[in-house]
Amino acid sequence: MKENIIKALKTIVGSDYVLTNKDQTASYLYDEVEEAYRPKANIDSIVIKPKNTQDVSQIMKLANENKIPVVIRGGATGLCGGCTPVEESFVLSMERMNGILEIDRKNMVAVLEAGVTLMDLLEELEKSNDLSFPVHPGDEGAQMGGMAVTNAGGARAVRHGVMRKHIMGVEAVLPNGEILELGGKLVKNNAGYNLMQLLLGSEGTLAVITKIVLKIYPKDFYSATIVAPFENFEDACQAVMDILKNGNLPLAVEYMDKHLFVGTAEMLGLEWQAKKGNADLLIILSEKNERQLYEACKEINEICEKNHSYETLYAGKAKEQQELLLIRSQHYEYIKETICDSFDMAVPVSEVPAFIKDLKMLVREYDTNTNVIAHIADGNVHNDILYLEDGTVPSYASELKQKMYDICFSYGGTITGEHGIGKIRTKDLTLQKSPVELELMQGIKKVFDPNNIMNPKTVLM
Amino acid sequence: MNILVLVKEVPDMEKVKFDQEKGVVDRSSAEAEINPFDENALQAAVDQKEKEQKNVTVTVMTMGPQRAEKTLRDAYARGADKGVLLTDRKFGGSDTCATAKTLAAAIRKIGNFDLILCGEKSVDGDTAQVGAEVAEFLDIPHAYYVEEIRNLDHDSVQVTIENIGGDRQVRTMKLPALIGVTKNISRPKLPTVNRKLESLTIQVETITLQDLNGFMSEEECGFKGSPTKVSKIEIPKEVKKNNQVFREDFTAFLQSVTDVLTEKGIV
Amino acid sequence: MCKGMDNKKQRGILVIAEQSNGEIHKVSYELLNKGRELAEQRNMPLDCLLLGGDGIPAEELNYRGAQTVYYMKDSIFSTLEEYTYKKNIVAFIEEKEPEIVLIGATNFGRSLAPRIAAALCTGLTADCTDLQINDEGRLIQIRPAFSDHLFAHIKTVKNPQMATVRYKEFAEAKRDLKNLENIIFVKPYFKQTSKSTVDEMIALDDFDITEAEVIVAGGRGIRRKEDLAMLEELAKVLGGKVGVSRALVDAGMAESSAQVGYSGNRVKPKVYIACGISGAPQHLAGMKDSQVIIAVNSDPSAPIFQIADYGYVGDLYEVIPQFTRQLRKEDAVK
Prior knowledge:
CATH class of chain B: Alpha Beta
Strand order of the largest sheet of chain B: 11-10-9-12-8-1-6-7-13
Strand order of the largest sheet of chain C: 7-11-6-1-4-5-12
Number of helices of chain C: 9
Distance between the termini of chain C: 50 Å
Number of strands of chain C: 18
Largest sheet of chain B: 9 strands, mixed
Order of helices and strands of chain B: EEEEEHEHEHEHEEEEHEEEH
Oligomer: heterotrimer
Number of domains of chain B: 1
Helix content of chain C: 25-40%
Radius of gyration of chain C: 24 Å
CATH architecture of chain B: 3-Layer(aba) Sandwich
Largest sheet of chain C: 7 strands, parallel
């Protein structure tokens, strides 16, 4: 990076907030993709920490004039290499833009700077005791800006949908430094193309989001998690379908292969308490009052029993529920050493049982296995390809991946339900999307970012 | 074999709020729940029931307002056989001494307990006194910080005490005896959904001061019977972060850090 | 269920010393220090009761300020067992009638004191962090509750007024060899009970990171696994444990049992020293509730400095060893 550029950056944000030393920049290069299949970072990239929108605007102008790539870094909890700079870039780390600007109870919206973490937001809402925000991608270190541009999902999509459903407005900085206000506190707004929605899910390839107007909600005061063990996976799936039809919509329904529940619990020094069965569901309920909660519990329990579940377990205390969720969320630590690729496919809910069955049959052809973890009630299925026993990547890996995708497409599915394309699935995207659609995407990209400085090699190849 | 578990209802400590001005705990700010340490005591009792196969009955007792019966229902869901609630407006304002006397009176009245279990301490009061005081009022032996019930037969119990005077201690006590348990004694299990739903409909036995006639007098309970009185509550102001970052002046940094380590009693 | 004491005659402060395996617990000296302050305010004697087997240096308690040391010497007291201790201490108190009784809030003290209080039909305040005398000459016992969120000031309306005090809450009384040795040997009032027998005592091992009072934690700034020894040394001087950020676990330099963070151990020690940790939200979530946070990092913009009480911008490879040396030096001076 040229000396005069660094000097200019230091004038904009102050010399403390431009990191060029490789020891220091090293912790700003990757997200949480496993080393084995993450994109390789360009270590000559430098890190800049803007304080406000004006800083961002000036940095973007400088980058655009000098055609230097810009990668925005939020909480770096992503799983597709989105915030890894693969060319010599400016890495804009948003952590200093962490102001909670407004909690507007009248309109039930929060106005946030992009660097506010999910944890900051939840803590702020907790203070009021009756507000909440439902989308939870698992790691509360995630930042709002990141959650917006990646259109984050998570387990609670069953009831609450994904991030784009909850964003009403954004402030964004274009590559040329222009500042745009899109949307706002309006519930209805039908004026022209919805550019805000275009930015959500664009993974930092079109503009820098600096502020967000986010919907907030009244809090549910009562929650419980049911552990429902089934002998057969098909019965578990049927129970999920029946629960979705029933009307008592759970907050989330999670499935994981039994050995993952048991093994992860053991790794954490805990014990998986559902001893019987081969297919366990975690059903998370959240209701306004206690009566509704127990009613939902009763109905769901009856549905499970009707579908031949074993004795279901009840976690009512916050601590008990957190423990179950911890086991669910930490499974990755348990398997990460054994997998060389992982997926985020999604299919229509009704096709989940057939889809998973086909995946399991497919890997058997290769004499291997695949771990299945699913947000089963929204059709989002995570699975993986395992290393060979000697720790090498199997020669059939890409062929197997292709076949998995083919199965997914045959059920009308997508290659990514929530993690996004990032840098690790750009090639795969071309398998799913028609040339016409890809061409439109490229056209849009050019309109926003003619010099292609915004997070190059992300989403589009 | 009759096992009694003493439990306390406490506010959820992660949520409870404090009114700095008035110097009071805002109990409405958080849902009441069973004291986490008592869950381990309850599970330890239920474990004995499952292990011994010799007709163990687990009773859970608590003292508090009527709503505390919720805690007893929860205990039922987790495997207790029945719940006893000591509730009376005259019990209000009890310190540990009066609380222990009231519990001891009720235990005498019901009679016939072989082993009494309680948690290490409560997360709200954090005194860890009631158990030993109950033992004293009943004149039975007790052990605290018990991490394991090694053996339980019809006339004695052998326990392992986690740490006393820097040693782990194995002790045998004649029954009846009282033990205060640590978190290591058991791993609380989840109730089944069916048992949880059933617990919402069970009968909870209630004991009032009148029911304790002959076992304790009105003077001995509640505020009147409490030798300790709270004269003031202080809520410390939230400590503001010092947030001092040193750059070149290493000596000053070292001095500040050494000072704070000294203040905290570390060095 | 118990009969109380007459409320007027009692006089003096009694500290019940604790010993284990013949060694006097330091909390006893701390109690004597506070006891001395209270005794002077009330112009009362400060005495000490010690129960134990043979060969305990009881005169130490004189040197630390006890006017009379009552040494109840018998081999039955070599094992810590509450029932026998209680019987003897209660009989002693009933005879000597002190106005204030102080006991260390060690595990044994916390278990023993309530039994004594109940037997004497008096109140007891556990884990006091301060003791004062009010205008009427009564003892004000100050203790934290609700996980230290509040402090209650408590009075006892009966005698003796009893309190237990946390270890390391007060400074130890200074050792003064000019104090007169004054030891009175007392025969046990009661011998062992058959109700409760100690079968075995086993010396103890280690504790886990969430229990540590001090955590010295390393992050990406640590270059090689061997360099963690530097943090171990500092932790040793401070009586703490070493923790790590996720980066070091991922790099195979540390076990996940030492990991601090949202997905590791959530800790709140008295003092957290972050060395070369930039402070990713994941990590901050696991340690931000520590009482005091000290951070050393070469990057002045590292988020850890936002939440640190004391930060130093510099190379931890220079700072940490120097810090350890300095602490050792001070230790040696003492």
